[in-house]
């Protein structure tokens, strides 16, 4: 006998429960008018049925009624009625209702009633006597005030108690009686036939208590902690509890007892404690079910949502039993309502938690074999094998290797790496597995990749296999900044290949040798100590046609070395273009990068950008994050060099976001340098400095290109912060380092231009002229328009008087014919300064306006602000811009913007342009930023606002902060 209403946890009034309470109240009003009413209340264990009955009993609806409550707790005869009539209520007049006489009294007291002949069960006459006497007792209680009977846990109720409920309802049409039967929806009734008769014949009003929704869970959190919980905390506890009030209340109580608060930090504690609370709830469900229900639950935990026949084979029961088990588990809230799988992964873990290791391993192995017999994919089998503590059967290695290949093809490198790591447990001596795993780790963990390759070298059975290992080792050593090791390994392998007999060397062997040679050349190009040797080796080579990966890598590296030397721009262009036939794959990514570098220096910017676009897209499609970040960074520096600062900013920010939090060490250098470089142009030198402070200088020691990019970025930050002397020292240090390495291309990192400007500002014109002459000599040798324009710019600031002004005027013309818009803006700005010093304000204003216009188009905020200040001092006025923000859009961005403004979805745009949806999203984000609009809803109006009929560009609706100069006063 129990009265469960006296104990409860934190009380809440969720809306769903409020509606149920209102329904009970309305039914009580109906009962007062005469005529028995029946309500059935269903809910899973812990759903709040008992709490709802408590609230109903305490409500105004029951204030002028006789209310009896009881919870069924056993199968004994009349046990439900004993619980119901345990507390004899008082009559209105203060006198107690007379207790039922005879057999009814014995039944309520738990004494045996008159047994039937030859059995321990009461005979029919005795039962009828009990039923009649208890009916008369109930009628007496309902004589002058309504009678409300609340019977809880009816799924446990004995048949005779339910028979009396049916007896009462059949004869109480004239009595004000309300009967509420509360039952667990997932439980099998102890007396199913009688309960079915009642619910069929008496036409009850059913009430079902659904799981708490998120808002109701938030109310419970607020009541438990006395404050509103953070969204993430509420989401976590709601998901863990599955919306079950008892589970949620239990979890919140434990969290509160441990001093946890409902915030972001508390979310982690909620996840940890939630596992234990959920495990307890699941155990309670399974402990009260037949063993075969647990077998079905464990089969679902291992296999997930699968046909009943497959689950039956794993559980060792018939398929019909599986279907029944799923029905039982669904009613218990263990299985989701809309699918044959668990409502939450924590439930799966809770079901499996009780298994010992051997049993769990057997189930996983059996599941993999069953899936194989069913013709499932290797990846599905791998899901089972990856969870085994030990792989002990040879067939498992083949499955995992195949699964790794499938995972990589669908751009899931993490899964592929997991599979191959487990294969190594079975095949620790396999060079092929180590090589494949090292290749996959090259993008995320270069040091670990090198360790795998180092272990593979002594395991290789022949020189060809060692050569394949060495080639990958060399490429990874560049990303890991371990080029010295890469050079050593490649040298050793090439020496071994040289000593091998020449006979029997076919095309494949020759290609492998060429690949090793070209990789040695590539690694040497990236190592300060080996650059001279690489250049010497390249000079002895006859440029190949570029028909194979090895030939294309050779061409790309030769073009890079030649470009760094600052000679033969035409040869650089030819070699790089042949190398561009490389596929955008992991094996040829370095070829494309090197070719793009050379084409950038020859001012073939669009071809270089196209190569980098392919690498960025490949990295995005195949989740090669480090490679994508590298390509984005170099594309950012390319865009910075031509004055496309918004694009440079977008690329650099995307690169930093890609590698942030990955712990990749050396892979973070280039993205940080690229972002810092463009931030300086926007006047955000503090952010730029913070980025550069995070660079590991030890990683830069042997590099060629990254080291000097880093020096120049630091120097520009110092100059922007007013430390001209410190900036000059860094620029000069960069120049000395490049000279030591014989890097003499004036177009690559024109440190000498910045240094000459600083020297002239510090009134050290003679030193500035020496640097400018050095730059001019290199520029004439290289021959591109941009290089010659930069040389004239440096000569202009280094030379005083009209001669210097003439150099600057020539610089503006040369740079206007080049792709370097930001450098052209700088030349106009410096020319305007020089003309002001010569007392020519009108001419100066013309060039300052040009500088402002170009700076606005480039996004060069800092230069534009300086030029505007100078224009005002020269007597000019500023006005709203006349150039269109559409000038800031790339061709692809304009195409994407037009399609989106026309109503095309992102997916439709992607299919039209043959790119991914993610690429479309990236372009649109850049468009929104450049046009100064909030999103797609404003795109059509934004484009119309800056374009007049006929295509003529107009000023935007909302002026940008960058303004243009007006006419003279």
Automatic annotation (TrEMBL):
One of its GO terms (molecular function) is DNA binding. One of its GO terms (biological process) is regulation of DNA-templated transcription. The keyword ATP-binding applies. SMART domains: AAA, HTH_LUXR, TPR. Residues 882-947 form the HTH luxR-type domain. Residues 89-123 are annotated as: Disordered. InterPro entries: AAA+_ATPase, AAA_16, P-loop_NTPase, Sig_transdc_resp-reg_C-effctor, TPR-like_helical_dom_sf, TPR_rpt, Tscrpt_reg_LuxR_C, WH-like_DNA-bd_sf. Coiled coil: none annotated. GO terms for cellular component: cytoplasm. Keywords: ATP-binding, Nucleotide-binding. It comes from the Bacteria. This is AAA family ATPase.
């Amino acid at each position: 006998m129990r009265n469960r209403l006296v104990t409860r946890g934190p009380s809440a009034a969720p809306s769903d429960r409020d509606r149920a309470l209102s329904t009970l109240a309305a039914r009580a009003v109906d009962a007062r008018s005469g005529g028995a009413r029946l309500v059935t209340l269903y809910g899973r264990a812990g759903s709040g049925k008992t709490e709802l009955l408590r609230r109903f009993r305490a409500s105004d609806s029951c204030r002028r009624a006789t209310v009896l409550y009881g919870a069924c707790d056993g199968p004994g005869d009349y046990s439900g009625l004993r619980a119901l009539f345990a507390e004899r209520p008082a009559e209105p007049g203060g006198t107690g209702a007379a207790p039922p006489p005879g057999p009814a009294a014995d039944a309520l007291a738990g004494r045996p009633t008159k047994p039937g002949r030859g059995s321990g069960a009461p005979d029919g006459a005795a039962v009828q006597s009990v039923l009649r006497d208890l009916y008369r007792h109930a009628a007496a209680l309902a004589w002058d005030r309504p009678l409300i009977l609340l019977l809880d846990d009816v799924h446990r109720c004995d048949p005779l108690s339910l028979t009396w409920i049916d007896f009462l309802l059949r004869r109480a049409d004239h009595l004000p009686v309300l009967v509420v039967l509360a039952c667990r929806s997932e439980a099998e009734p102890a007396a199913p036939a009688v309960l079915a008769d009642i619910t069929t014949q008496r036409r009850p009003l059913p009430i079902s208590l659904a799981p708490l929704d998120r808002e109701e869970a938030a109310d419970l959190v607020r009541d438990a902690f006395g404050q509103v919980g953070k969204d993430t905390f509420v989401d976590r506890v709601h998901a863990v509890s599955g919306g079950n009030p008892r589970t949620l209340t239990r979890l919140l109580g434990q969290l509160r007892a441990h001093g946890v608060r409902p915030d972001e930090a508390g979310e982690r504690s909620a996840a940890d404690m939630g596992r234990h609370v959920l495990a307890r709830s699941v155990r309670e469900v399974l402990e009260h079910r037949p063993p075969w229900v647990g077998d079905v639950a464990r089969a679902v935990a291992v296999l997930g949502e699968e046909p009943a026949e497959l689950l039956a084979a794993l559980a060792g029961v018939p398929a019909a039993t599986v279907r029944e088990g799923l029905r039982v588990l669904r009613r218990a809230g263990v299985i989701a309502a809309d699918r044959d799988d668990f409502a939450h992964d924590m439930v799966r873990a809770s079901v499996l938690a009780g298994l010992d290791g051997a049993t769990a391993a057997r189930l996983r192995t059996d599941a993999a074999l069953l899936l194989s017999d069913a013709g499932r994919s290797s990846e599905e089998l791998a899901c089972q094998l990856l969870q085994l503590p030990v792989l002990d059967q040879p067939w498992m290695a083949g499955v995992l290797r195949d699964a790794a290949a499938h995972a990589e093809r669908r751009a899931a490198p993490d899964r592929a790496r997991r599979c191959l790591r487990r294969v190594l447990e079975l095949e620790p001596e396999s060079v092929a597995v180590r090589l494949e795993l090292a290749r996959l780790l090259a993008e995320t963990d270069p040091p670990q990749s090198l360790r795998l390759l180092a272990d593979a070298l002594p395991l290789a059975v022949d020189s060809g296999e060692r050569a394949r290992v060495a080639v990958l080792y060399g490429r990874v050593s560049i990303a890991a900044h371990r080029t010295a090791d890469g050079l050593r390994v490649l040298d050793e392998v090439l020496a071994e290949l040289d000593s091998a007999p020449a006979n029997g060397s076919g095309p494949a062997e020759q290609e492998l040798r060429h690949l090793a040679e070209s990789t040695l050349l590539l690694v040497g190009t990236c190592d300060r100590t080996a650059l001279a040797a690489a250049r010497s080796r390249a000079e002895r080579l006859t440029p190949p046609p570029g028909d194979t990966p090895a030939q294309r890598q050779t061409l790309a590296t030769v073009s890079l070395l030649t470009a760094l030397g600052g000679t033969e721009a035409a040869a650089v262009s030819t070699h790089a273009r042949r190398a561009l036939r490389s596929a955008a794959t992991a094996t040829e990514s370095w070829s494309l990068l090197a070719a793009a570098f050379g084409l950038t220096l020859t001012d073939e910017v669009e071809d270089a950008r196209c190569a980098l676009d392919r690498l960025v897209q490949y990295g995005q499609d195949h989740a090669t994050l480090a490679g994508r970040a590298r390509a984005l960074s170099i594309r950012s520096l390319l865009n910075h060099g031509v004055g496309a600062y918004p694009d440079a900013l977008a690329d650099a920010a995307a690169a930093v976001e890609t590698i942030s939090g990955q712990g990749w060490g050396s892979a973070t250098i280039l993205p940080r340098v690229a972002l810092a470089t463009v931030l300086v142009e926007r006047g955000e030198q503090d952010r730029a400095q913070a980025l550069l402070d995070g660079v590991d200088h030890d990683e830069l020691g042997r590099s060629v290109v990254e080291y000097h990019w880093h020096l120049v970025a630091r120097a520009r930050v110092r100059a922007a912060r007013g430390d001209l002397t410190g900036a000059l020292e860094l620029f000069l240090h960069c120049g000395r380092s490049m000279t030591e390495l014989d890097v003499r291309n004036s177009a690559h990192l024109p440190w000498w231009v910045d240094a000459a400007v600083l020297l002239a500002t510090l009134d050290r014109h003679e030193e500035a002229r020496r640097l400018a002459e050095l730059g001019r000599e290199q520029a004439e040798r290289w021959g591109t328009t941009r290089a010659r324009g930069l040389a004239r710019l440096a000569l202009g600031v280094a030379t005083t008087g009209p001669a210097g002004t003439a150099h600057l005027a020539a610089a503006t013309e040369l740079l206007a014919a080049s792709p370097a818009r930001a450098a052209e803006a700088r030349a106009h700005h410096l020319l305007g300064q020089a003309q002001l010093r010569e007392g020519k304000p009108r001419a100066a204003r013309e060039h300052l306006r040009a500088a402002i216009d170009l700076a606005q188009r480039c996004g060069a905020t800092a230069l534009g602000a300086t030029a505007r200040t100078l224009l005002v001092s020269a007597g000019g006025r500023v006005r709203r811009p006349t150039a269109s923000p559409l000038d800031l859009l790339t061709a692809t961005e304009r195409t994407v913007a037009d399609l989106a403004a026309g109503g095309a979805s992102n997916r439709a745009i992607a299919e039209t342009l043959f790119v991914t949806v993610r690429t479309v999203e990236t372009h649109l984000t850049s468009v929104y930023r450049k046009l100064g609009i909030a999103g797609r809803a404003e795109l059509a109006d934004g484009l119309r606002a800056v374009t007049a009929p006929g295509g003529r560009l107009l000023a935007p609706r909302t002026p940008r902060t960058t303004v243009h100069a007006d006419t003279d006063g």
